[in-house]
Amino acid sequence: SGALSLAADAGHMVVDASGLVIALIAARLMRRPRDEKHTWGWARSEVLAAALQAGMLLVICVMVSWEGAWRLVSPPEVEAGPMLLVGVVGLVANVVSLAILAGGREANLNMKAAFLEVANDALGSLAVIVAAGAEWALGWTRADAIASLLIAVLILPRAVTLLRSALAVLMDFTPRELDLAQVRSHMLGIDHVEEVHDLHAWTVAPGLPVLTAHVVVRDECLRDGHTEEILDRLQSCVAEHFPVKIQHATLQLEPVSHLEHEAAYC
């Protein structure tokens, strides 16, 4: 048909199809047990898969935008009949795919990515149908280029959002919903805690936040057996008091007298 919007939608579908294969591989890898060489297992495989899908979507977006801009200036002839037919077939296929994926879209980042990509495909197919109708009924030669740019606009924000979410995990950023200043303040509010430093929080994979900290307590607490009580309260604090429930916290309790040696290492 010579339609760029159809080519854009096809490219988007190729990314989706490969993305679903990648998602399946990632889901299989995540089920592998942990061992001495993979202490977190393969939990981040789904994040890597999501980042790869986002990267492919961005490439498609740039290519379509470039070609679409040129076609706005000099629109080529497009055959509306085949364009309309394939657009309708694509829309039906995407609606069926959406129905299949809808139940699991909140399961993890990878499934959410797959659902959003298929939803974008459905909108892309709809844009192709509208453009084909405009070409056929009105002879509007720039409808295809406009539909192509619309598909690129649909792809871009979701690709950027997905890439940002994946990079936040890969770069070990603090979970967005967690305020470390507030965490520190809560920990300092526990009796006998003098200082909290080397406080770090990150996400190994979606649903698996972790936290580490050095907690300075009074010297006498380490001698009179208060450390167990302090540790219990600290772990309860990070696991219950914040929007991100951190079940995996590694806390190092130190006496005040240790601070003079700490500078050599931290």
H/I helix tally: 9
Report the average pLDDT across residues: 82
Helix content: 55-70%
Distance between the termini: 64 Å
Strand % is 5-15%
- Form type: elongated
The largest sheet is: 3 strands, mixed
How many β-strands, per DSSP? Answer: 3
**What does the radius of gyration come to?**
26 Å
Write up this protein.
The protein is mainly α and 266 residues long. Helix content is 64%, strand content 12%. The chain is built from nine helices and three strands, in the order ααααααββααβα. It has a three-stranded mixed β-sheet. The mean pLDDT is 82.
Summarize the SSE layout with pairings:
Elements: H1 4-30, H2 45-73, H3 80-101, H4 109-138, H5 143-170, H6 180-188, E1 193-205, E2 208-217, H7 219-224, H8 227-240, E3 248-255, H9 259-262
Parallel strand pairs: 2-3
Antiparallel strand pairs: 1-2
